[in-house]
Amino acid sequence: MLVRLFVMKGLQMDEFSGFMVFLVTCLLLGGIYLSIQSIVDAFLLPVVERIFRKKQPPVREQELEIAPDTPAKTIVPKEEIIIPQYSEYKHAAQQKAQEEQVRLLDNVLRYTGQELALYVEENEMKKLYEYICPFQYATEKECYKITPPIIIDSKLRPIDLMHFGWNIGNQFKKSGIEIATFIKQVFAKTLKGYEISTLQRKLRAEGNCIIKNKEEL
């Protein structure tokens, strides 16, 4: 402000010139201030901090006071930390998988009995159960070895057996070719006129049927 007054009154310049001089002066003084601040931060502050640190006495651990409301952190010695072994994790995972497989198989067998009880005799039903149990882990080649076939009531048509096969095979995450091979061997007499490739394509075919396709049993 003083420089502006000096320019306008002392040097007899107009207001615009005075404003420009005022602006340039502010920029110069701002730059000088920033330069001085940078010098102080870079050189003087570290010196001052070192001086004060030397004067401060070292703080001993015994002199530290813990506030009553502050929870103390407990450091557990490394020797007392129990790290679970890999075998424990593996055993737990295997046990969980086995329990899931047992539950799944029980659900499939229960569904089979409820769905086919009216169309399959008791001795044939037991044989069917014996075929379903290993089907959970069987491959396509192993399905070819299933014999003898199950005898069922003529009321069940091929479309019903296709739906039944897909319903239980889907629970076991079986492929279409594995399901088709399984029902072809298990119900060979009823499906004697069908190729495995045809059964695979029609596992979820729509039509008049007794057994419906189900995502969940």
Description:
The chain folds into two domains: 2-55; 94-201, no CATH class. It has 217 residues and is mainly alpha-helical. The chain has helices at 2-10, 15-55, 86-116, 122-135, 140-143, 158-171, 176-186, 196-201.
Outline the fold blueprint.
Elements: H1 2-10, H2 15-55, H3 86-116, H4 122-135, H5 140-143, H6 158-171, H7 176-186, H8 196-201
List keywords for this structure.
2 domains, about 220 residues, mainly alpha
Short description:
The protein is mostly helical. It has 8 helices and no strands. It is elongated and about 120 Å long.
Averaged pLDDT: 84
- N to C succession of SSEs: HHHHHHHH
Gross geometry: elongated
CA-to-CA gap between the ends?
A: 89 Å
Helix content: 55-70%
